[in-house]
Write a structure and sequence with these properties.
- This protein is an alpha/beta fold and 232 residues long.
- The protein has 2 domains: 15-68 and 159-228, Ribosomal protein L1/L10, rRNA-binding domain (Ribulose 1,5 Bisphosphate Carboxylase/Oxygenase, 2-Layer Sandwich), CATH 3.30.190.20; 75-156, Rossmann fold (3-Layer(aba) Sandwich).
- It has helices at 6-12, 23-33, 82-90, 98-104, 120-123, 127-130, 148-157, 181-197, and strands spanning 41-48, 60-64, 75-78, 94-95, 112-115, 159-163, 169-176, 208-215, 221-223.
- Helix 2 packs across helix 8.
- The mean pLDDT is 91.
Length: 232
């Protein structure tokens, strides 16, 4: 079992075992405990009372973080004609169908792909390449749409996609340690609000079982999950 370094162990002292914190306190601790020599990402991990093996208990969705993620997102748009122009004006980094061929040749220098519905016949075969990497455009994520300007603008503004994993957990970035604490709080609140809204009707009992925030290298800080619980 790997051992944590000295800096991690020192930071961990600030989080007593079994104690939970208010969101603002937890985020401030995450900022204070960050010790890496780079601007670490702040992440949230939520454990949910769902069984992802059942189709009616899948939790997924999107949310536009009020203050973005702190990361420059490279957006590729597969579109033609007027939609190409709309995508370019909205700030897309790459636009055009020629990128479909480039992807088949191994090019993957983008973070999100948007496609108009009429282009999915050409984009569909890329599923075996993009699917495992979470890059395949999907209607549920809002990345298969004729409103490419809105899609690109939202992604650039901080829109992220989330999906429960096979163990019932949802992980997402909510900013950087260089963000102000209130910016991280706003982003966390927006994310958790969407998690609660995405509760499947088949989920029973306490839907949100745990919420933990951390920086890339730092220890996790647990937040009181009762703050995000609603009656069944």
């Amino acid at each position: 079992m790997p051992k944590h370094g000295k800096k991690y162990r020192q930071a961990r002292i600030a989080v007593p075992a079994g104690e939970t914190f208010e969101p603002s306190q937890a985020l401030q601790l995450v900022k204070e405990m960050a010790y890496a020599g780079f601007d670490e990402t702040v992440e949230v991990a939520t454990r949910l009372s769902v069984d992802p093996r059942k189709a009616d208990q899948i939790v997924r969705g999107t949310v536009v973080l009020p203050h973005g993620t702190g990361k420059t997102v490279r957006v590729l748009v597969a579109a033609q004609g007027e939609k190409e122009k709309e995508a370019q004006e909205a700030g897309a980094d790459y636009v055009g169908l020629e990128y479909v061929d480039k992807i088949q040749q191994g090019w993957l220098d983008f973070d999100v792909m948007v496609a108009t519905p009429d282009m999915m016949g050409k984009v569909g075969p890329l599923g075996r390449i993009l699917g495992p990497r979470g890059l395949m455009p999907t209607p549920k994520a809002g990345t298969v749409t004729f409103d490419v300007a809105k899609a690109v603008s939202e992604i650039k503004a901080g829109k992220i996609e989330f999906r429960v994993d096979k163990t019932g957990n949802v992980h997402a970035p909510i900013g950087r340690v260089s963000f102000e604490a209130d910016q991280l709080f706003d982003n966390l609140s927006a994310f958790m609000d969407q998690i609660v809204r995405a509760r499947p009707s088949a989920a029973k009992g306490s839907y949100v079982r745990s919420v933990t925030v951390s920086s890339t290298m730092g220890p996790g800080v647990p937040i009181d999950p009762n703050l995000y619980r609603r009656s069944s």
